[in-house]
Amino acid sequence: MPNGVGAFFFEVCDSTNARAATLAIAGEPGPLWVVAGEQSAGRGRRGRSWTSKTGNLYASLMFRPHIRPQDLAALPFIVALAVRDTFIAFGAPESQVQCKWPNDILIGERKASGVLIESSAKHGGLLDYVIIGIGMNLVHFPDDAAFGATSLLHVTGQEVSVKDAATVLAEKLYARIDAWKVDDFSSVAEEWTRYSWGLGQQRVLRTHDETFTATLLGLSDDGALIARLDDGLEKRLYAGDVFPVERAD
């Protein structure tokens, strides 16, 4: 781990995000990583379960930035780029590693990683802590996921250990967070856009209350996805899922 960054490893825990939150509430100053060999109650976005077989990476970084909740807009995209860096470092073809809004990383147009960011604010308005949960499919991947999945092993034929993946991910993410300028979202958005999946193309978008087809245009200055509907109107999405048109049935 980078200098000054702590780490806890559990063979099995309920959820690395939940364990990191417990440590934060108990007063751990951070930054620190929680890494698990297996999760018994892994969570994805919107309360979804996360398949957590031994051999994949399940890790959460807890840290305490002195910023406001609204300053976090760039963080999901920074994390996605760091995960992309990590896959490439272990041999994934650079041209095939893409970022899918809002927080997935694809290899060969199949999901290889997801990110779950949670935070808690102080009464004064500043954040008390932020937790970045990351799952990387190093060896296993579900064959029944709503969006097709893959693993680093499946793509490269090489098995990477959890320890090695955690070490490289920590270095890549630390470097990007260290370089993060909170008031400069545009440079992060520009880089993420270069490696994004689906921009300029029609995709099926699903929110909690509707499903529709639209052309993906890019990111707004607060991280929303801008999509153009068939009637020409533009819509901003702050939460939802994106699928290829042919896989949306």
Order of helices and strands: EHEEHEEEEHHHEEEEE
- How many structural domains? 2
- How many strand units? 12
Q: Under the CATH scheme, which architecture of the largest domain would be assigned?
A: 2-Layer Sandwich
Mean pLDDT: 91
- Structural class determined from secondary elements: alpha+beta
Major sheet details: 7 strands, mixed
Question: How are the strands of the biggest sheet laid out side by side?
Answer: 1-2-3-7-6-5-4
Q: How big is the Rg?
A: 18 Å
Strand content: 25-35%
Given the C-alpha coordinates, what overall shape results?
globular
Low-confidence stretches: none
CATH homology-level superfamily of the largest domain: Bira Bifunctional Protein, Domain 2
Q: How would you explain this protein's 3D organization?
A:
This protein has 249 residues and is of the alpha+beta class. The chain folds into two domains: 6-194, Bira Bifunctional Protein, Domain 2 (BirA Bifunctional Protein, domain 2, 2-Layer Sandwich), CATH 3.30.930; 202-247, SH3 type barrels (Roll). Helix content is 23%, strand content 32%. The protein has five helices and twelve strands. The chain has helices at residues 16-25, 75-89, 152-156, 162-179, 185-194, and strands at 6-13, 32-39, 57-63, 97-100, 104-107, 110-121, 127-136, 202-206, 211-219, 225-229, 234-237, 241-243. The strands form two sheets. It has a seven-stranded mixed sheet with strand order 1-2-3-7-6-5-4, with helices on both faces. The protein has a five-stranded antiparallel sheet with strand order 11-10-9-8-12, with no helix packed on it. A hairpin with a 3-residue loop joins strand 4 and strand 5. Helix 2 (75-89) packs across helix 5.
